[in-house]
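Let us walk through a complete example step by step. Step one is to write down the protein sequence. Step two is to encode the small molecule, NAP, as a SMILES string so that its atoms and bonds are unambiguous. Step three, shown after the inputs, is the structure prediction itself.
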Amino acid sequence: MPTATNFELTEVPVPSMKEGELLVKALYISVDPYMRSRMSDAKSYVPSFEVGKPMDGGVVAEVIESRHPDFVAGDAVLGHLQWQEIQTINAQQVTKLEKTVPLSYYLGILGMPGLTAYFGLNEIGKPVAGETIVVSGAAGAVGMVVCQIARIKGCRVVGIAGSDEKIAYLKDVLKVDEVINYHSEKNMKATIAHACPDGVDVYYDNVGGEISDAVFSNINKFARIILCGQISLYNNTDIPVGPRPQPLMVKKSALMQGFIVSNYSARFGEGIQQLAQWLGEGKLSYQETIVEGFEKLPETFIGLFHGKNTGKLLIKTNS
Ligand SMILES: NC(=O)c1ccc[n+]([C@@H]2O[C@H](COP(=O)([O-])OP(=O)(O)OC[C@H]3O[C@@H](n4cnc5c(N)ncnc54)[C@H](OP(=O)(O)O)[C@@H]3O)[C@@H](O)[C@H]2O)c1
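Step three: the predicted structure of the complex.
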């Protein structure tokens, strides 16, 4: 588990600007579970963070000064930027944002987590009306969107989350059909069986570990298991050994597929358009946990692994 001592807050001079560059100040900074995987030297689909250098990730920023013809001071931009309050960047690192929705949405429902929910569920889960879908990490940034899309598709949705507040949010606001607080259940296998009397057709897996083991034992024939994330294992130093699900997968002719949202980058426009339309029509509701203060980045990031957030977790800078 990372601790605050793994982080350092420093002041450095802002480099002078060249042609084609922008001086930007961060407005919203995203903290995401995948960043934990980058705090290691293990080979992955994204490079490791370098010790002594700033972390980076999704940032919504405001242009303070522009040396690029397509941008003016005051523009809002989105990019993969460093965890810095102010920085000089190449204008090609960012895209200009429309200010028609709250700017934080571009890091959540209309950004990477929303697209992860949309493509993972539709392309791998292929949900059909009337089917039962189980979503773990259901009250998080990705999970809350998955639950709602599955309901739009006419599925029966069972959401798993880790606190009574999250359970109430899933039930009362998102209208999820059945909810399970995994912290207060002793026998998750039986609890899931009870919540899914017709079995599990689609499992959207955000957390892995024992919760997923319990879901696997309830899958139906031709079930689809979407491996989106395994947050319960990200702080493990050893590879855990659990039940091996392969015999069950054979018996049930089930599909289990992992994915990275960037696999679908060529279709992000389609995804954002659909999510924005559902949002505009009131078919998607949205929740964020916003923490104020750039200096709160480390503890906020660590909070992801303690379930501190409902919906998308973000830092809002004081600048
Ligand atoms: N494949 C991709 O391209 C892609 C893209 C984005 C995200 N992801 C993955 O999707 C998952 C969700 O990401 P997100 O951004 O939406 O995060 P999130 O769900 O908003 O936040 C993390 C949540 O995970 C839960 N959690 C933390 N530790 C846990 C544990 N040991 N066991 C069970 N649940 C635990 C907590 O909720 P509770 O209170 O409910 O425990 C916490 O609030 C992550 O695994 C992430 O890595 C994958």
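Step four is interpretation. DSSP finds nine helices and 13 strands in the chain.
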